[in-house]
Amino acid sequence: MKKLILDVDTGVDDAQAIMVALATPDVEILGITCCHGNTPLDNVLKNTLRVLKVCKRLDIPVYRGCSMPILAQTKNAGDYHGKDGLGDVPDPGAPGLELLQKTKAARAMINIVNENPKQVTLVAVAPLTNLAVAVQLDPSFPSKLNALYIMGGNTESRGNTTSCGEFNFVTDPEAAYIVLDRYTCPTYIATWEFSCRSSLPWSFCDQYLSQKTEKAAFMKKISALSMKKAQSADYQNEVTEGQGFNSCDTYALAAAVNDALITVKEEVAVTVELNGAHTRGMMVLDYMEQLKKKHKAFIIKKIDLEKFKQMLMNSLK
Ligand SMILES: [Ca+2]
Known about the structure:
CATH architecture: Alpha-Beta Complex
Largest sheet: 8 strands, mixed
Mean pLDDT: 95
Number of domains: 1
Low-confidence stretches: none
CATH topology: Inosine-uridine Nucleoside N-ribohydrolase, Chain A
Strand order of the largest sheet: 3-2-1-4-5-6-10-7
Helix content: 25-40%
Number of helices: 12
Bound molecules: calcium ion
């Protein structure tokens, strides 16, 4: 049994990632911690509960995390995921925030990991604020994790939010810096350029969304806006290659739950630029070992895309 904590800022790809986790056999989600990001925190909380409701898994505890970055100005990705983070489609049946746990996210992460030492894989697919706070509260927290999977950062200075900055890292660069510096557990990173190279053909998206289930109908509704955006001319400046739907967060999640998914990876020490006028929030890869870091991260370079598609298909069944 793989035990997971998911740290999310639930937009469309977070929703897809949560649904893949729920559909994967032998995976147990011990908690979902929410962070500001794609949309303001209250929307993230509501969206997360909406996804769990569609999957009939409101028994999974959801925790309120940080509503703003450590130092940076708050930024959201409303133009892509919609103002509400899930494509701006009305949902009168959305669960209320009274379902949230009382414990705050960073504390909950620490508690869960203390109860399951060395057994929990943390999948972080939002700005890394909650993780940075958790390690401030308990510096030994990372050493008690089994592994950390991150969606964020970039390898070739290609940005999707600033010229050189990927959204999750650039939204809270200080948090990303702290996490890459102090999380010395095995760390796997699904970067922006990698996810662009692994994007899903539109023909697959049609197949994925046209399944005759309640989950597929929900996904079709919430992803309509971002799929349209992904086909716009503006968006072509962001992606590094080719057409298709880039389910960023799901790559990190799928790699965390399926050990056979990653086919090529590279081990290198990483950090984040905090001061550059154009490069603040950019991930820095220290191939020259100038940083003298003992801990290196695994940069995901390639995955088995057919396995990945199958996991997505199964998640809406
Ligand atoms: Ca996300």
